[in-house]
Amino acid sequence: MLTAEEKTSVTALFGKVKVDEVGGEALGRLLVVYPWTQRFFEHFGDLSTADAVMGNPQVKAHGKKVLESFSDGLKHLDDLKGAFAKLSELHCDKLHVDPENFRLLGNVLVVVLARRFGGEFTPELQASFQKVVTGVANALAHRYH
Amino acid sequence: MVHFTSEEKAAVASLWAKVNVEAVGGESLARLLIVYPWTQRFFDSFGNLHSESAIMGNPKVKAHGKKVLNSFGNAIKHMDDLKGTFADLSELHCDKLHVDPENFRLLGNMILIVLATHFSKEFTPQMQATWQKLTNAMANALAHKYH
């Protein structure tokens, strides 16, 4: 899926990512930009405004958890389906999340990386990350039935 | 029909005022061609698209990106009637250019990413939500006359 150079550049950029901040920002932005996604997080408390969402400690904590999982995935770029098999079953059988939302979160993550890294987020890096988030979304959907 | 609140219109206008249309247009189109390489098929006449640097530096890509984004800027003045504003361009893209409307959504996402890289402070979650709504609405308007 990714060439050796792409893997190196993706890993290098992601090494600079503050996982707890970026995770929280990505999940927060998902909930703000695509408000129907809030239905999965009704127990998170106040999600009534963009500021409430972005400042919500449960959103931040869960965003961190999600991005840590993504980071793990980056160590298994040659077997994303294997790496995400259990999470895929969880999201299908227990959480009942429409897999389209994985693609949306992946796209939001790309926007967050673009915002934080500016010009450093070159078109080549964007192309590589787009492949990764698409791969992760597909892997998370793979066990759905 | 999509409705934009006055706050959303003001937010769009405030960011748009800072946009260098030539730079952002060229970069958005180039990123589309790089990140989604099949889109290059619509631009066979543009010359060298063989590498990322060739695409980013290609003068026809820059010129066409500017043209596309100028059209986008025109639509921003008519946010209450995007379908009407894009009617002719919709027919053109269907009847003459044969562009799959999914590509309008992809280009819209590229514009958002370029705005995010250029405007890290201004591109708040609310700003992102408003621009996502706008690019989705524009993509729908461009697809509206397809048959």
Q: At the third CATH level, what is the topology name of chain A?
A: Globin-like
C-alpha termini separation of chain B: 19 Å
Number of domains of chain A: 1
Number of strands of chain A: 0
CATH class of chain A reads Mainly Alpha
Tally of contiguous helical segments of chain A:
8
Oligomeric state of this protein: heterodimer
Largest interface: A-B, 24 and 22 residues
Q: How large is the share of residues in beta strands of chain A? A: under 5%
Main beta sheet of chain B: none
Q: Which second-level CATH architecture of chain A applies? A: Orthogonal Bundle
The portion of residues forming beta strands of chain B comes to: under 5%
Helix content of chain A: over 70%
How is this structure best described in words?
- The complex is a heterodimer of chains A (145) and B (147).
- Chain A is an all-alpha fold and 145 residues long.
- Chain A has one domain (4-141): Globin-like (Orthogonal Bundle).
- Chain A is built from 8 helices and no strands.
- In chain A, helix 1 packs across helix 8 (123-141) and helix 2 packs across helix 7 (100-117).
- Chain A is globular.
- The mean pLDDT of chain A is 95.
- Chain B has 147 residues and is mainly alpha-helical.
- Chain B contains 8 helices and no strands.
- The radius of gyration of chain B is 15 Å and the shape is globular.
- The model of chain B has no long low-confidence stretch (mean pLDDT 95).
- Classes of the chains: A mainly alpha (145), B mainly alpha (147).
- The interface between A and B is medium-sized, with 24 and 22 residues.
- Chain B: It comes from Odocoileus virginianus (White-tailed deer).
- Chain B: It holds the Pfam family Globin.
